[in-house]
Amino acid sequence: MIEIRKVTEDDVTVLYDLIMAIAVHHQQQQYVLTCPEELLAAGFVKSPKYGAHLAEYEGTTAGFISYTHDYSIWLGADYLRIDDLYVLDEFRGNKIGEALMNHVAESCKAQGIDKIKWEVQSDNLQAIRFYQRLGAELNSKGVFTWILNDL
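^ thats the sequence. predicted structure below, dont judge the formating
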């Protein structure tokens, strides 16, 4: 049985461990600069900077989804931007990723938000097929990152 629930302050260490797990999975752990204290300070204030939900499978943490709320001046509307979706290897194939995505989609609908955006690495064909099965469309825009500390 899959249970999806919002991350609480008590879950911050678990969330951090899952962030590190996805970073290791993509061999990008050197890019994770946050820490549990930062996650706590940014996510559990009057105006949280992010949201996250945990998936539990038969009582064991199996994955997470994290996101931020954004606004599009072209749409004239709010939208949700998914930061990470990750399911631990041993729980894959149990529809946990689908449950997380559907949970966030239903939450968006309840808030009057009708658009969700996210990024996927172009060589991650398994993820692309998964998102397309959900009904999402792949946009071919490139993504730039400008690290301002380097100026």
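Helices lie at 12-25, 36-43, 96-110, 125-134.
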